[in-house]
């Protein structure tokens, strides 16, 4: 790791897709790696289907910034249909040699942005019988970024998604399935 390290990630999706959950899970995983973290959402009108933006920063030094990320190192797009109306916002300010990770089946190319695509939604539905791609796409992010381990990400998913029923029994199925989906995406993204 370089002496001074700061990673800035912007996540785009729609309300109800678990984008804020993704940002929290990624932040927790980065914390397990020993980084200082800051993560927060920007919802706008809070309703299902409304575009949302979430921000994650992690660093080996104290993080003082508490504002949105204008020049991200990485942009993660959970809802590819946003490119129809929000393309400029999604690509805005991406650093030179910045990377874009998109949940879609088609190949995308943008000037000066390294773009990686994988259809996490179809994989989640067909192989794992779940609707959301929000946790799975994080496998692509950690594979490409290389500074958060599979172990830390798996642990963060389990910590954030395991629930306890009224009898005190742990409900782990959703968390376990999302860990498997995340690992699957990690192995498939190019």
Could you explain how this protein is built, in words?
By secondary structure, the protein is an alpha/beta fold. It has a single domain, classed as 3-Layer(aba) Sandwich (Pyruvate-ferredoxin Oxidoreductase, domain 3). 36% of the residues lie in helices and 24% in strands. It contains 6 helices and 8 strands; from the N terminus they run βαβββαββαααββα. The chain starts with 5 loop residues before the first strand and ends with a helix.
The count of β-strands is 8
Q: Into which percent range does the helicity of residues fall?
A: 25-40%
Number of structural domains: 1
Total helices: the number is: 6
Which CATH-level-2 architecture? Answer: 3-Layer(aba) Sandwich
Largest sheet geometry: 6 strands, mixed
Radius of gyration: 16 Å
- Mean pLDDT equals 92
CATH class: Alpha Beta
User: In angstroms, what separates the terminal alpha carbons?
Assistant: 23 Å
Question: What do we call the CATH homologous superfamily?
Answer: Pyruvate-ferredoxin oxidoreductase, PFOR, domain III
State the order of secondary-structure elements, H for helix, E for strand: EHEEEHEEHHHEEH
- Please identify the structural class as seen in this structure: alpha/beta
**Strand arrangement in the largest pleated sheet:** 2-3-1-4-5-6
Poorly predicted ranges: none
CATH overall fold name: Pyruvate-ferredoxin Oxidoreductase, domain 3
Strand share of the residues? 15-25%
